[in-house]
Amino acid sequence: MEYSEKVKNHMKKHGIEHYQMLFNSMLSGFAHCEIIFDEAGKPVDFVYLEVNPSFEWLTGLQQVVGRRATELVPNIRNTNPELFETYARVSDTGNPEKIEIYLSPFKLWFVVSVYSAERGFFTAAFDNITDRKNVEEKDRTKRLFFESMDQINQSMQGATDPEQILTNVLSKVLSIFDCDRAWLLYPCDPEAPSYRIPMEVTKPEYAGAKALNIDVPMDSPDMVQAMREVLASQKPVIYTVGTENPVDKSTTGRFGVQSQMLIAVHPKLDKPWIFGMHQCSHPRVWTADEQELFQEISRRLADGLTSLLAYRNLQESEKNLSRSLNELSNLMDAIPDVVYVLDTERNIVKWNRMAETASGYSAEELSHKLIFELLPDRDRPLVIGMVNDAYVKGYTEVRSHLVKKDGTTIPYRWSAAPLRDAKGNDIGIIGTGWNLSKQVIAEEKMKLYQLQQRVCLDNIPDLVWMKNAAGEYLEVNEAFLSRAGKRREDIIGKTDHDVWPEEYADKYMADDKIVMQGRMQKRIEEGMPDSKGNVILVETIKTPTYNEVGELLGTTGVARDIAPKICP
């Protein structure tokens, strides 16, 4: 009670001074404005009545008091009508709102908190969140890329029939890009007499060519030119109606294509193919990120086509045993990954050239080795289990390593499948090995990115934390640790009662409960003790957090000092 009276008396005596000092020293931009209505009572503009220095610094606008927004930024009503709508709605209802908005005239992202204490007027506080948005977008793009490629890889690993694998990939492409058709054309050869569409997946409303594996005469100059452009480009080639690079009239007329993206696919064993997507519902602008993803998928399709062609050739080779052995060696050598065959004693009895290249051993040296001699000691039990499980399950994979002749260890993913004779008896194992070096590098880059996020968080002067729904701390930054006078391991997994004095802990947890129950952000001015017993007046913003399906996870909090210590 004595503490509360001290605060009241202090604020009564110095409140206006504190307000003006806070107003002028806030890092957030601050503007108090009046809505301007037309004769019909429709809000059409607003006038700046008061702004703080941070407003001018954040926007670059000068001498704004008494001037209209459309005078200062003439096109803002057209570029950001939602900003006017929000201001008008808050000034009319009095209900505060918070929005994140990209203001194109400034080429910046802002988070804007809008309040109104009087009808027709509003107060807006905003912060520049452009850096955060850029980081989020980069993170979202990277995550989407890896998630999409993971879907593609799983679709290729989920079936044993190569044609089904490629069909699965095209189906995933249709889903990932939300396009109307995904297809493969063969051959991508402008000199060929004809071409065909061996594989195609479409949405029901856009049926496609209806001519799978039917030879189509190469009599269209537009098709010949498109093939030449695709073969000459290392990147996807895009055609869109109404642009400098339009879809040819025959394709638009026959198949209703508004936009298409094409790329040449080069399997190891045959002529180039074309991998393509159609957008029929509307002219589509393919983003740079979508083009990069499309190109990476084409590389995996090249591997898939290589495997498909290898599989078909292998079937043909079974007609003649002597010829099949020679062709099998050629096929295995054409596959860009390691291929190996083991007998039932786990001796390496056959391999491709990539196995020699990857391991550094000659063919003679490999012929005297067990598969496990190419593995580090710690991985051998894991691979033994993979081989044993393959006989039971039919197919297994593990993430392990390859030890080269020079002792270098490379991350690899190994697969194994049983070899059986005509009677179904096990006669060995056939498997592949994929070099994961690039994937590991990508994972390390992601770890570095997460570390950079941690560094950024720890360099923010405000106190930042995250709790779960039970009130247990999940994360805190260095400013929080400094204020609490504790180590991170002494806080993570603990509640406020383990960190703060009881009277503060009770209040903080009660506020968390209000935020979670109301599912609304709460802004509080409150005291916060430090490790020396001083109490600092802070502005705390608590926000509920949710998962991707809208389930409540807990709260996040940010506290910013707004006054020096006020109580010893």
UniProtKB/TrEMBL annotation:
InterPro entries attached to this UniProt entry: Biofilm_reg_signaling, GAF, GAF-like_dom_sf, PAS, PAS-assoc_C, PAS-like_dom_sf, PAS_4
Domain PAS: 324-394, 457-527
One Pfam entry name: GAF
Domain PAC: 396-448
PROSITE patterns recorded: PAC, PAS
Protein name: PAS domain-containing protein
Origin species: Candidatus Wolfebacteria bacterium RIFOXYB1_FULL_54_12
